[in-house]
Amino acid sequence: MPIMRSQDWRPRGIDDLEPDAWRALSQAGSTCVIAGPGAGKTEFLAQRAVYLLETGLCPAPYRVLAISFKSDAAENLATRVRKRCPAELANRFTSLTFDAFAKGLVDRFLSAIPAHWCPTRPYDLVFPSRRQKEGFLNLSSNTAPPQWRTEIAGFHAESFEARHVGAYRLPITQQAPQSGAEFIIQRWLAGQLATQPRSALTFVIINRLAELLLRSCPHIRRALQLTYPFVFVDEFQDTTFAQYDFLLSAFSGGEIAVTAVGDDKQRIMTWAGARTDAFERFAIDFAATRIQLLFNFRSSPDLVRIQHVVARALDPHSAFTVAQAVRQVDGDVAQVWNSPTILREAEYLARWLATDMVTRGRAPRDYAILVKQKSDDVEADLAATFAQAGLRLRNESHSLGRTTLQDLLSDEFARVAIALFRLGSTQRAPDAWQICSAALSAVRAVADGDDITEARTDAELTAFLATMRGEMRNTPPSEVSVTTFVNRVLAFLDLSAVARTYLEYSSGDLLAIMVEAFQLHLAASARGAANWTICLDTFEGLEQIPLMTVHKSKGLEYDTIVFVGLDDQAWWAHTPGNAEGLATFFVALTRAKQRAIFAFCRERGQRRRVAELYQLLSDAAVPEITTD
């Protein structure tokens, strides 16, 4: 494909970029891009990738690397680049999560890790519970040298690994601990490495091993930098200590152009180890130019005005963003609802949603119910009343075995498996066919350009679906039939081949976790379903109103959000001026495109702890109505 001059290049798939996005797009060195809610950061990153590839600024065989925090975000960005760029160029764009990137390095170069830190091959992935961490800390405190016990007693289970282990650089040569922190960190790592018959590693430990690998093997670091002269990091405000340190070891030094995109006002992951100074450190360590995007393509002008009031509470110097969306509703774009009881709140909300959907011609998934925590409790409060109004609620933060519904639906195995079921229930599902055909080619290791093997693979898929379709036509959905057909899908895909194909499944039990969750959710979706189409629609959440925690809503947007539980009970840990609490409130508000409702119920609790949040809404002239 001919190279295009940079001055002649134009955005792909969209009309234009805002002026500051153009400046960030063409920046030669490292850049810190401040992108607030609705700024279109995913689109910006996709356009920058296409720009670098089409103008030859990233010529073959070099690649562009994008690092995201969640697998669905990584896949969404990759999909967008593929849609906007010729295949021969898009193939040089790599989009991974931090965890997958670090794990890939460890798996590939495991034998190069210094022997005393080297895990077994293969190893297992583990996710220790808070209780397990507390037990470890207590035991370590009791067995540590007396002079370090007071220091060790100051560690807390919720922050120990993310904050302290994540910030620790493993010494290349084995060294005796010189402090209580080193004693307990090395003990934590040694326990994971020594697990029999296979090492059992957390993603934080995998990250630390990957960082050690780059420090101890400069040729691996150099090869990495030669491969990826351009690196993107999405949702940079949530970068953990471990992730930032890994990024520093991998790509600092001035030769790599790193583009970090995010927004301090949306930092709601400090509880999970996110640094509070990530942008400041990045600007110094990477000599990065700071550029702020000022357009908001999501929310209407009146909602943007309200959002700015909250933004100023988080950052008094916050720039006013310019709304690009058009207002589509009459009346108030935001309200506080004050209800006397949980039942009255549910009845009012259900009636209002049902009426609004009909009046405005909206679908259930245009709305979202957001909560601070305990989504299962809110589901129990609302579900029956919603059902009476003809509405179905879908708790996307609900646990399914060892994962959540939302994580299942963004999983690669689940995406392929449900596409196979779609094709088993109908012959007309072109998107599902594309997903299955591409996945089967990957799983069967079909080489690019091998038309004969590709045709054979498609014929194999066609034959399997013909048999499955005939049997599904004569077998209604039930828990028993779900088990039967899931087993056939698993056998057809070959789980061993799936694990070899997709990096995230290459070790540990993540694939088993997702298979278990898939079967549980499909069996639940089959209950009461008259046919497979209804069952699969239920599985995917069609015609259902999503309910989730604010943390699960990050990166999503809805016509209307209703925040249930703006009270002291749900916000029990909030204190006035708490930055993470304000950021959580800001994230909830900014998911809305047209309307934001905040529901308070006097039966649930008071609102003294959250008085400042109500004051912000009052300052923004948001009215409060009673539903008595």
From TrEMBL:
InterPro entries: DNA_helicase_UvrD-like_C, DNA_helicase_UvrD/REP, P-loop_NTPase, UvrD-like_ATP-bd. GO terms for molecular function: 3'-5' DNA helicase activity; ATP binding; ATP hydrolysis activity; DNA binding. CDD domains: DEXQc_UvrD. The keyword RNA-binding does not apply. Coiled coil: none annotated. It is an enzyme of class 5 (isomerase). Its EC number is 5.6.2.4. Keywords: ATP-binding, Helicase, Hydrolase, Isomerase, Nucleotide-binding. It catalyses: Couples ATP hydrolysis with the unwinding of duplex DNA by translocating in the 3'-5' direction; ATP + H2O = ADP + phosphate + H(+). ATP binds at A35, G36, P37, G38, A39, G40, K41, T42. Residues 14-300 form the UvrD-like helicase ATP-binding domain. The keyword Heme does not apply. Gene3D superfamilies: P-loop containing nucleotide triphosphate hydrolases, PCRA, domain 4. This is DNA 3'-5' helicase. The gene is uvrD_1.
